[in-house]
């Protein structure tokens, strides 16, 4: 992967997904969007889409069982609960994520990755309700799969995931052209398009 050149003061990007369970309920969808705004994220890009099952499988392939078991046959692994738990979770996740519309965001903030993960709350909904009841998952999550949102867990993951959902978005070009203007301001928000842009630029073109 090509290294992205950015200044030490540059805003950080992350991918945020709102899952089908939340998109299906307009009030929850709007509440999550408002959480993004309330936490001072800049919404760089946003789109809604139906995710193809094959794209879900590629995106979540890391959950398809531990790699150390790949050399064994399915029957040789019958006593390996970890493998089966991983495969079960993977299949359930893929089926769910392809079951209805999702909303994808590119978010910017000086600490976008960690902040978004904090705003989401723990992956396990039971834990989220107890330790972070005001988080998105604590408020709206149903199960560990239907837990409302997804967020990148590292800079490398963010770049890979952004490219998967916004194939026409150039991260390098954004850091060269848009990021300095958004960081230094002033910044406008377009409620209809749901994105932020530097004042006087008219906003980004289609991605």
UniProtKB/TrEMBL annotation:
Gene Ontology BP annotations: negative regulation of cell growth; negative regulation of mitotic nuclear division; nucleotide metabolic process
Name of the protein: Nucleoside diphosphate kinase
Protein's gene: NME6
One Pfam short name: NDK
Catalytic-site annotation from UniProt: 150 (pros-phosphohistidine intermediate)
Highest taxon, organism lineage: Eukaryota
GO MF term list: ATP binding; metal ion binding; nucleoside diphosphate kinase activity
InterPro entries in the cross-refs: NDK-like_dom (IPR034907), NDK-like_dom_sf (IPR036850), NDPk6 (IPR037994), Nucleoside_diP_kinase_AS (IPR023005)
GO cellular component, one term: mitochondrion
Naturally occurring in which organism (per UniProt): Physeter macrocephalus
Similarity comment: family membership: Belongs to the NDK family.
Protein residues bound to ATP: 19, 89, 117, 123, 137, 147
């Amino acid at each position: 992967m090509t290294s992205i050149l950015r200044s030490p003061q540059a805003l950080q990007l992350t991918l945020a997904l709102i899952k089908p369970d939340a998109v299906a309920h307009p009030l929850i969808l709007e509440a999550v969007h408002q959480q993004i705004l309330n936490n001072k994220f800049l919404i760089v890009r946003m789109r809604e889409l139906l995710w193809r099952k094959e794209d879900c499988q590629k995106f979540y392939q890391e959950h398809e069982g531990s790699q150390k078991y790949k050399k064994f046959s399915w029957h040789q692994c019958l006593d390996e609960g970890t493998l089966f738990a991983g495969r079960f979770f993977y299949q359930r996740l893929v089926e769910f994520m392809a079951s209805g519309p999702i909303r994808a965001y590119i978010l910017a903030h000086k600490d976008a990755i960690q902040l978004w993960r904090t705003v989401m709350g723990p992956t396990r909904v039971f834990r989220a309700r107890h330790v972070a009841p005001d988080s998105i998952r604590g408020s709206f999550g149903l199960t560990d799969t239907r837990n409302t949102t997804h967020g990148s867990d590292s800079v490398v993951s963010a770049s890979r995931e952004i490219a998967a959902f916004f194939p026409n978005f150039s991260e390098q070009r954004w850091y060269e052209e848009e990021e300095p203007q958004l960081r230094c301001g002033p910044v406008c928000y377009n409620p209809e398009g749901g994105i932020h842009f530097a004042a006087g630029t008219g906003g980004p073109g289609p991605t």
